[in-house]
Design brief:
The chain is mainly alpha-helical. It has helices at 2-13, 24-43, 78-99, 107-122, 155-182, 184-197, 202-213, and strands at 50-54, 64-67, 199-201. The protein has a domain at 2-120 and 169-213: Peptidase M41 (Methane Monooxygenase Hydroxylase, Chain G, domain 1), CATH 1.20.58.
């Protein structure tokens, strides 16, 4: 199983870059970044199960949080898409909560989130402002796939689309801030484990989050995938060690009032 696991990691995440030397402050920031992704992947209801977290540089990434689907999925609900957007915001938001500023580490997350939100608005009718319409042609010039797109909507509609994309992304950023603030102890516990071990599996991450929370986040079972139990297996919940009572941890649903403003970070 170790050989299979190593082979899968090589294919999905890239080859380990053993020669790359990271400064201590960079390594800590990467650990917080990946812990933010991992905590949201575990806590949010509709994300794929958490499988592994590593801060060992692989391929083009300085750290990786891997989730694995429980089964083949041919369509995705809006809630699944929103939870995926929120999870990808986790790295950026974790850095913001801990350091009070941002880094370049979230560039790929933001690019993927923006493209997903754009498709939700333009292609899948998941915006109340746009309604049940699909806007934008996929026809491309033959010299390059992304050089030109024909636009079949007005400048006003274009602005509405841009505003809706921004709204969706800001909603999920605000939601990520709320969840990570609620589970701040779990975020710090995951980070310490990553700095010590460099790689932890989903089951260990779930145990750390549950212990920091004071009770299991998912009472019916930890939402993780183990390499030894196979995809789609739900590991049994371990009894959490007694800790000081923690706040209840329901995952807040995305809701933003008109005239949304960037959220104010809670005092640390």
């Amino acid at each position: 199983m170790e050989d299979f696991e190593s082979s899968r990691d090589r294919v999905l995440m890239g080859q380990e870059r053993d020669t790359m030397v990271l400064q201590d402050d960079e390594r800590e920031r990467i650990a917080f970044h990946e812990s933010g992704h991992a905590l949201l992947a575990y806590v949010l209801e509709k994300t794929d199960p958490l499988h592994k977290i590593t801060i060992i540089p692989r391929g083009m990434a300085l750290g990786v949080t891997m989730t694995l689907p429980e089964e083949d999925r041919h369509i995705m609900s809006r809630q699944h898409l929103e939870d995926s957007l929120c999870m990808r915001m986790g790295g950026r938001v974790a850095e913001l909560l801990v350091y009070g500023d941002l880094s370049t580490g979230a560039a790929d997350d933001l690019q993927r989130n923006t493209e997903l939100a754009r498709r939700m608005v333009r292609e899948w009718g998941m915006s109340k402002e746009i309604g049940p319409m699909a806007w934008g042609s996929n026809n491309q010039v033959f010299l390059g796939e992304d050089l030109m797109h024909t636009r079949d909507y007005s400048d006003h509609t274009s602005k509405v689309i841009d505003d809706e994309i921004e709204r969706i992304l800001r909603e999920q950023e605000s939601r990520a801030i709320e969840v990570l603030t609620l589970h701040r102890r779990g975020l710090e516990s995951l980070t310490r484990a990553l700095l010590e071990n460099e790689t932890i599996d989903g089951a260990e991450a779930a145990r750390l989050i549950d212990e920091a929370n004071g009770e299991p986040v998912h009472p019916t079972g930890t939402k993780t995938v183990s390499a030894l139990t196979g995809v789609g297996k739900t590991a049994p919940v371990k009894e959490a060690s007694p800790v000081a009572p923690a706040a209840a941890s329901p995952v807040p649903a995305p809701s933003v009032a008109p005239g949304w403003q960037p959220p104010t970070l809670p005092a640390v």
